[in-house]
Amino acid sequence: MLYLLSQLGFSFIAAAGFGVLFNAPRRALIHCGTVGMIGWIFYIILADAGVDPVVASFVGSFMVALVGHIMAKRFRMPMIIFSVAGIIPLVPGGLAYNTMRQIAENDYLAAIPLAAKAFMISGAIAMGLVFAEVIMQVVMNIIKRASNNVKREVS
Amino acid sequence: MTKEMTERETEKILEVCLLAGRIMMEGGAETYRVEDTMTRIAASYGIKETHSFVTPTGIIVSLQGDNPTRLVRINSRTTDLEKVAQVNQISRKIAAGELSVQEAHQSLIQLEESHLLFPISYQILAAALVSGSFLIMFKGVWTDFLPAMIAGGLGYSGLLLIQHYTRVKFFAEFFASLIIGLVALAMVTIGFGMELDKIIIGSVMPLVPGLLITNAVRDLMVGHFVSGLSKGAEALFTAFAIGAGVAVVFL
């Protein structure tokens, strides 16, 4: 329980901190932190349950992008402000570091699988982003059509 | 007479489009958003057809009619989301018909010259906090929290300092990660820190080109191949610079 709480708290701080580094608008910092926290908590719960990190990253980035889109609509700001800070915790920094370290130590055979994994995870993150965007578009279209139908019926 | 006037008018619209596009691209906006914003601005001023070609190093815009096509070069790319948001707001105002071409141009120039970054002390503090948080998120031990904060903060200050003197981004990144590696190694050697790997991974995070990597793959997926590949190359270079800096410590 304490573990989950600390993960929640620190992912919030990390994402909000990245908001500062990326110079996000001041009033959006708390939202940045929230988005990052939501994405990370989905990732960490899945990863701890033994789900493949590629799948966990996909789910995490999907949630980040979904919440990011909703906030972008709500606050009328570009969606990138909310998603970027939230995505960062999912980026396979540790894997990339280990790859580089193996290469530096001339152990290329150990580096290749790590590099492939890092590439797969970044691909999964991008997939999550694009999927969430497509789903949002479809949902928005349906809502628009529905409200148009309602208007037509009223008039 | 009227023809000359409209020509000058479209010239001005083109300028507004290019300026908006450049500020956004320099602030780290996505390729499609830049194209979309420029098309929308032109459309709000009554130009129905706009073709644009946006890459991370330059923007080419062509408006409908017989005006010349124009190109701007993008030299520096940072992440300044506040500016992206402000251009977005200006373009919303333009679409709502609240700004004339002249006013839009004025406010964009004002925005370009303004300095909206957080104070440097805030940035360094944020980098330190981010480093410490990542250490915990990557399941490091609690006693390493402070060492990671120190290494991350020092590394980021090094990055800002060297970026101030040189425009070679990769050198600054290399040097920053070298500082992180050395500080972390020193702290582990004197017994202040425990796990060298975790401390380094945590404190390197503020430098990691996460935005570039995801933007690159995203651009590739939606078909902006030129942007995707060049952003990917930039991300790869940055990752390599960081890795090389840390690797020097292990040699």
Automatic annotation (TrEMBL), chain A:
Major subcellular location class: membrane
Membrane topology: Multi-pass membrane protein
Signal sequence coordinates: none
Domain Threonine/Serine exporter ThrE: 9-135
InterPro entries named among the record's database cross-references: ThrE_2, ThrE_Dicarb/AminoAcid_Exp
Ranges that cross the membrane: 6-22, 29-47, 53-72, 79-98, 118-143
Protein location: Cell membrane
Keywords assigned: Cell inner membrane, Cell membrane, Membrane, Transmembrane, Transmembrane helix
Pfam families linked to this entry: ThrE_2 (PF12821)
Keyword Aminoacyl-tRNA synthetase in record: no
Family named by the database record: Belongs to the ThrE exporter (TC 2.A.79) family.
Protein name: Threonine/Serine exporter ThrE domain-containing protein
Species name: Sutcliffiella horikoshii
